[in-house]
Amino acid sequence: MSKKEGRIKLVFVTSNEHKIKEAMEILGKWNIQLEGSHVTKIEVQDDCIERISRYAAIQAYNEIKKPLIVEDSGLFIKALNGFPGPYSSYVQRKIGNDGIVKLMENISDRRAYFKASLTCICGQYVKTFNGIVHGSISEEPRGREGFGFDPIFIPEGYDRTMAELGERIKNTISHRYRAFTQLAEWVSRQKPLKP
Amino acid sequence: MSKKEGRIKLVFVTSNEHKIKEAMEILGKWNIQLEGSHVTKIEVQDDCIERISRYAAIQAYNEIKKPLIVEDSGLFIKALNGFPGPYSSYVQRKIGNDGIVKLMENISDRRAYFKASLTCICGQYVKTFNGIVHGSISEEPRGREGFGFDPIFIPEGYDRTMAELGERIKNTISHRYRAFTQLAEWVSRQKPLKP
């Protein structure tokens, strides 16, 4: 990571602009600067998002040879054996929140969690940070903020969905918040390293 | 492909024993011998099964350097925007046929198709053969033969599901049958080639 002018630069390999925006807000108070990149993110099919995130990070690093991060995340619903899990973004595009709500009709166990797996490659390090937020699936979509499954996910300790709570609250409790702050703390402990 | 003793040998890169068994039955009358392999099949996340199949084939070929085939297939349901598509095997494991039937409740457009995309790498060739079978989603799972989504798929021209029709009929009309027979015809036209 380069600490030129006091800011640490990391390439964020993603084509999801929501994620870049969220990450920048979360990292705002930290000394880290994120850059977008056009490098291809190769996502393998795997039930384990840590492996997806690490594989993508290694492939991207082999291409651009710069300090970088890759994030993979998903919604894991207990009564659906972890579905949609690593394929959350595909499932969101295809059947949406209404599809999940339909699958959960007449199911009383509503437990679910969001998990983010963030891999950072920098110098000799390949580090993965996981963040989880537990909660439950709502009876119907509610709220307009956030993106993805936010309108059907009620975080533990709240009675409103992520989309109703809004970004300010979301970005202090979310799976991505928890993964990114671990990354930030780790990065801030490192000495400047050559990429 | 090696034509030693008159049989052409191709490695079939898959960990799905149902698929090996089906392919062997389909190719029974052709001069092709399939071998299993322990090489890792790297499946990327992509809405397009041709790209998944080609990427996996190239990765496997780089590892084993032998003539090989890789198959990727999926069930594409029109009213669900193509879901479960390339993630059919994951979706089958997680929500099963009952999950799909639940998603299709109160939906009158039941149209769907199975598609198989088969990539063969051999000598200087990277060839992909696609097979499609059109049909519809049944109101509930029926039948015990076959595997995967066979119990909820009624092929066009029939009133029974693939699982009710049984393997003998399935293996003359299925997406895999259509892809494998194109492969077999192509292979039989080639001169013996070094891998």
Commentary on this structure:
The structure is a homodimer of 195-residue chains. The first copy, chain A, is globular and about 55 Å long. Chain A has a single domain, classed as Maf protein (Alpha-Beta Complex). In chain A, strands 1, 2, 3, 4, 5, 6 and 7 form a 7-stranded mixed beta sheet that branches. In chain A, α6 crosses α7. Chain A starts with 7 loop residues before the first strand and ends in a 6-residue tail after the last helix. The first copy, chain A, is built from 7 helices and 7 strands; from the N terminus they run βαβαββααβββααα. Chain A is an alpha/beta fold. In chain A, 44% of the residues are buried. The mean pLDDT of chain A is 92. Chain A has helices spanning 17-26, 49-64, 88-94, 96-103, 162-165, 167-173, 175-189; strands spanning 8-12, 32-35, 68-77, 84-85, 111-122, 125-137, 153-155. At the A-B interface, β4, α3 and α4 of A face β4, α3 and α4 of B.
Q: Spell out the helices and strands of chain A N to C.
A: EHEHEEHHEEEHHH
The CATH architecture name of chain A reads Alpha-Beta Complex
The most extensive interface, with participating residues per chain, is: A-B, 23 and 23 residues
The number of distinct helices of chain A, counting runs of at least 4 residues, comes to 7
Indicate the multimeric state: homodimer
What do the pLDDT scores of chain A average to? 92
Reported for the largest beta sheet of chain A, the result is: 7 strands, mixed
- Taking Cα atoms only, what radius of gyration of chain A do you get, to the nearest Å? 17 Å
Stretches with pLDDT under 50, minimum 5 residues of chain A: none
CATH topology of chain A: Maf protein
Shape of chain A: globular
How many distinct beta strands of chain A? Answer: 7
Q: Name the structural class of chain A.
A: alpha/beta
State the domain count of chain A.
Answer: 1
Strand percentage of chain A lies at 25-35%
Distance between the termini of chain A: 6 Å
